[in-house]
Design a protein that fits this description.
The relative contact order is 0.03. The chain is mainly alpha-helical. The protein is about 50% helix and about 0% strand.
């Protein structure tokens, strides 16, 4: 067995670790934090100046600007409504609600009456149309509650469109054909 000396046990790494060169400071020792703080203060100051110039007269009306602790109670008292005023408003609202309900019921009754009249007229029209057609040609049809649109006679008697006729393909002449316009041998000259 090999024995390890105490110096080897206390320093297990014989060579030092190379960590590279020390970090380089990019700012050269200066900090930009001061510039950022100054820029933020300038923006806040500009905003405060804008608010003061445009809304300064309204700021005095706000309770937390004038410092009067009793001013919030005076605002709350100005917004409150007496019980008599509230009861009058409630009575007026219930009266208008009842009037609207009665008007709605009247309109619904009128609508039902008109609907019944339309159904009666439709039944009469269907009865008259059934009387006009021959009884043997068409069986009796039950009355419907919908109104049918009358069909104009001109539309029923209109002729159907027809497809255009195809022309017959030209027939090919029997025999030899001249290409280029030269006379064919043995062909008789055409008489005009």
């Amino acid at each position: 067995m090999t024995e390890i000396s105490k110096s080897e046990v206390s320093n297990p790494v014989a060579s030092p670790i190379d960590v590279g060169p020390p970090p380089v400071r990019l700012t050269g020792g200066r900090s930009y934090m001061g510039i950022v703080v100054v820029a933020v203060l300038v923006v806040l100051g500009a905003g405060a100046a804008f608010g003061w110039l445009n809304y300064g007269d309204r700021l005095a009306e706000l309770p937390f600007f004038n410092g009067a602790p009793g001013s919030t109670a005076s605002i709350a008292a100005a917004d409150s409504v007496s019980a008599a005023d509230f009861a009058a408003f409630q009575q007026q609202t219930s009266a208008s609600l009842q009037a609207a309900t009665q008007l709605l019921a009247t309109q619904q009754a009128e609508l039902k009456r008109l609907s019944d009249q339309i159904a009666g007229l439709t039944a009469r029209i269907d009865g008259l149309q059934g009387a006009m057609t021959p009884a043997a040609a068409a069986p009796a049809q039950p009355a419907t509650t919908t109104l049918a649109a009358p069909v104009p006679e001109a539309a029923a008697a209109a002729p159907r469109p027809t497809a255009p006729r195809k022309r017959p393909a030209p027939s090919r002449p029997a025999g030899a054909i001249s290409i280029g316009g030269a006379p064919l041998p043995g062909a008789a000259p055409a008489v005009r």
